[in-house]
Design a protein that fits this description.
Chain lengths: 151, 517
């Protein structure tokens, strides 16, 4: 039985969404989450992407990709944070542009996620961030992630 | 399912000073010296009192040099300026160097002849007054004898002339001639000092440094310097608060031994030494922090001696009394809760003022006044979107009680910013968003009560999250403040203002974070 999108919208539009409870709905809510991730409501869209990151399976990757393409920084940072925990194959491709995002919060979550998905492309980007990012804290984060990758 | 975030150690702590730069404006010092002029000169021996049984022995060479002062046409009571590039003023007695005629004879002074120098005897070192025998003035060891000889030489030759030349331009000299004491920077710091009259006895000082060595103005290390560091930190911390400390008064005292004019000078040197150390400590903690701090120096001499000489040889630091914060609750309020707003990103949906007014509406009905203790903007760029992911998924996370040890490093780092927040007060951190997304979060490290409010929060979110910290749980009724996750949370409150039932009010009043009015 499909879950009505309004039901999901309401569940995500509370002060403290019940993410553990919502993840039990599983991958079948991917279409609804994709729609919600593309809404203009920053809170609901970001929460939909966050929920997608908690549900295992490749069905959630389009939701995260939609979040990564959002014009709303909070939604993009939600996508980066979702990639941090998602074990979906192909997530590294979504991660690459977020590492160079103009928003520092997005970059922060992307760097944290990159530390868990060490690929050559990611490592190269981390190297650039570790010396060139305008935020000292992010440079330090990138350097730490790079050290872990090289070790 | 809760996720497991394993963030690398992020140098968030390095950001702890962000957003707190605040320029001090130089405080004006318009006090004019109104103190009594002291001209001791040849009279000092007559005015002095003899109180030490052997102090006169050590001080006879000093007496000799003091008698030479009038030949320079200068008052003998003038204190040496500490900003001269010379060591601490050479030891001179707190008391006159010879006893008055009616002074009782003491065994050690039996051979004492007023007006004549007494050569130190070859006695073994004494521990009478503490670890350093020389500081007692009673010791006759070779080291003390050498020191006495150096003291005698200090006033000879060029040094003597240089010292008095400097006095020509010294504010202390102006004080003695009745002129106003202009502010001037202390040596190697940005502090501006001025001379003010000895204040009357008042309340307790912010810091009391006693136990100065007899006839010395240098600090007792590390005791004095250790005590100054917390005060310096307090001054720095105040700069971000509602009552920044920009002036302070440093008052020097001596014991009762010695002539009044000399003791005024000695007290002045002690005050200057402490002020200089404090300003240097400020600059060490935050370079340039002493700039604009106005230090009022005052010398009371022996006029406010305490019960023992060691307690009397002291310096007191007084801070300006901040204007009392309004602590009275509005009529009808039983208790109050104090919030300190820490703004990383201002809310976009409802203003902080609206959230506060809404909270006061709900809490006021329960007899709880919501007080704002302080508001601070924090520039913590990496915490504007804060990670709230549970670090250990196998333990409860995101549920009551709000005080939890199961928080990730980023979450804990945010709650370290508690400037001005008292132990029974709450910090409210306004951030852009949280990950995973929540409008509010009550979980906080134990002992650091506070909440997080996201920029997308509803007008009731602040009241709701503080309610959690005060011990309230979620309910399903949309008329109540603590509406939970089964509906649209505080967005779905149907009958504003939302209610608090009697048992909830009792729980809130029982919290240690609600203080009786």
């Amino acid at each position: 039985m499909s879950i009505p999108i309004e039901h999901l919208r309401s569940a995500l539009n509370v002060d403290e969404p019940d993410y553990p409870g919502l993840t039990r709905l599983g991958a079948k809510i991917a279409p609804q989450l994709l729609q919600l991730a593309q809404t203009r409501d920053a809170y609901i869209a970001a929460n939909a992407v966050s929920l997608a990151g908690m549900i295992p399976g490749s069905a959630m990757l389009p939701v995260i990709q939609a979040g990564a393409r959002s014009t709303i920084p909070q939604v993009r940072s939600a996508a980066a944070a979702a990639l941090h925990q998602s074990k979906t194959p192909g997530a590294a491709q979504v991660l690459a542009p977020l590492l160079n995002d103009q928003d520092k919060s997005v970059r922060k979550f992307a760097i944290a996620a990159a530390g868990r998905r060490p690929t050559a492309v990611v490592a190269e980007t981390l190297g650039e961030i570790s010396v060139g990012d305008p935020e000292p804290a992010l440079r330090a984060m990138a350097a730490a992630a790079l050290r872990r990758y090289r070790s | 399912m809760t996720s497991e975030y394993v963030f690398e150690a992020i140098p968030f702590a390095a950001e702890s000073g962000f957003g707190l730069e605040q320029e001090w404006s130089a405080a004006e010092n318009e006090e004019e010296w109104a103190g009594e002029e002291e001209w001791a000169g040849e009279e000092e021996g007559e005015r002095g009192r003899f109180s030490g049984r052997v102090r006169g022995r050590r001080s006879m060479p000093v007496r000799r040099r003091r008698r030479r002062r009038p030949s320079f046409g200068r008052p003998a009571a003038v204190a040496l300026p500490t900003w001269l590039a010379v060591p601490d003023a050479p030891a001179a007695p707190d008391e006159p160097t010879f006893p008055p005629a009616d002074a009782p004879a003491e065994p050690d002074a039996a051979s004492f002849e007023p007006g004549e120098p007494v050569e130190p005897a070859d006695d073994p070192p004494s521990e009478e007054f503490g670890q350093t025998c020389c500081s007692s003035g009673t010791c006759r060891c070779s080291g003390c004898r050498q020191r006495a000889a150096q003291e005698s030489e200090w006033w000879s030759g060029e040094q003597q002339e240089v010292a008095f030349e400097a006095l020509e331009f010294d504010p202390i000299q102006q004080r003695e001639t009745g002129g106003p004491a202009p502010a001037r920077p202390a040596a190697a710091t940005g502090c501006a000092t001025s001379i003010v009259p000895c204040p009357p006895r008042g309340g307790p000082p912010a810091l009391l440094l006693d136990g100065f060595a007899f006839d010395r103005s240098d600090l007792v290390r590390p005791r004095h310097s250790d005590a100054l560091a917390p005060l310096a930190r307090q001054i720095l911390a105040s700069q971000a608060g509602p009552s920044p400390i920009r002036t302070l008064t440093v008052v020097g005292h001596t014991d009762a031994a010695g002539p009044d004019p000399y003791n005024v000078g000695l007290a002045q040197r002690r005050a200057e030494t402490v002020a200089r150390e404090l300003c240097q400590t400020l600059d060490r903690l935050r370079p340039g922090a002493s700039r604009g701090l106005a230090v009022r120096l005052s010398a009371c001499g022996e006029t406010q001696a305490r019960s023992t000489p060691a307690q009397s040889r002291r310096v007191e630091i007084f801070l300006p009394t901040p204007p009392a914060r309004p602590r009275r609750c509005p009529p009808g309020m039983k208790e109050r809760v104090t919030l300190h707003f820490k703004i990383l990103v201002a809310p976009t949906r409802f203003s902080i003022a609206t959230m506060l007014a809404s909270m006061r509406q709900v809490y006021g009905a329960a007899g709880i006044h919501v007080e704002v203790g302080s508001t601070e903007r924090l520039r913590l760029t990496t915490l504007e979107e804060v990670n709230l992911a549970c670090p250990r998924a196998n333990r409860p996370c995101g549920r009551m009680p709000c005080a939890s040890t199961n928080l990730n490093a980023e979450h804990v780092a945010l709650f370290r910013h508690r400037r001005n927040v008292g132990p029974n007060e709450l910090a409210v951190y306004f951030v852009r968003s949280t990950k995973p997304g929540r409008n509010g979060e009550c979980q906080h490290p134990p002992g650091r009560p506070g909440v997080i409010v996201a920029s997308t929060a509803s007008r009731w979110t602040l009241a709701h999250e503080v309610g959690h910290v005060l011990g309230l749980h979620h309910v399903a009724n949309t008329d109540r403040l603590m509406i939970g996750t089964r509906t649209q949370g505080t967005n779905s409150i149907t009958n504003p203002p939302p209610d608090l039932i009697a048992s909830e009010v009792a729980t809130m009043l029982g919290s240690n974070l609600t203080i009786p009015c």
